[in-house]
Amino acid sequence: MIYGYYDSTYWMVIIGIVISLVASSRVKSSFNKYSHVRSLSGITGAQAAQKILQAEGLYDVRINHISGNLNDHYDPRTKELNLSDATYASASVAAIGVAAHECGHAIQDANAYVPLKIRGALVPVANFGSGVSWFLIIIGLFINSSASQLLINTGIICFSAAVLFHLITLPVEFNASARAVHILDERGLLTEEELKMTKKVLSAAALTYVASAAAMVLQLLRLLLLFGGRRRD
């Protein structure tokens, strides 16, 4: 309900939640399935990452073991490749694929891949925007002054920065996965059949980013429909 009226845009929120849950379920299912398939090479995710980084001449990237599951990530600020419990010491095709994907980000960083640089620059802006957007919108809704619509519009603009971050993340993640598949094939770290399995894991993971971006876009559209150009009587 918005000021006593039925919120006909709430279906956008529901769709965003559903697609995010479906994508998250799919990546967990895919990873769990192929995390039980041991690679013929017998190398772990950490070892695969080390081989890939050395082959690419990236000797300044440190590989770390972090606690958790599927929270693997590369930090371009510290040049650290952080592999989770499910990846670091596992010799499964899923773990090797995830490790190679994170190496893809390290290679992007070394090659000054433009979308990665843009995403990095957007991090503080997106964090600030997502943090203050709803605060500004809510304040704008409850004050009765000429500044009301200005606050609401500023809140929507701030939220747009977070949406832009999610959108620029898509080419970054897709490119990292493409690099991973190419490297694993080129270096012979996985067999042809194992590579097919890894592609399924990485494709499922990519869908989570698509779902997240779609949910954010739907939320932005909802804000525009509800509050964009709103005028007080």
UniProtKB/TrEMBL annotation:
Domain of life: Bacteria
Keyword Methyltransferase set for record: no
TM segment ranges: 9-27, 121-143, 150-168, 206-227
Classification via InterPro entries: Zn_peptidase_2
Leader peptide range in chain numbering: none
Protein's UniProt keywords contain Phosphoprotein: no
Keyword annotations: Membrane, Transmembrane, Transmembrane helix
Protein name: Neutral zinc metallopeptidase
Organism this protein belongs to: Parasporobacterium paucivorans DSM 15970
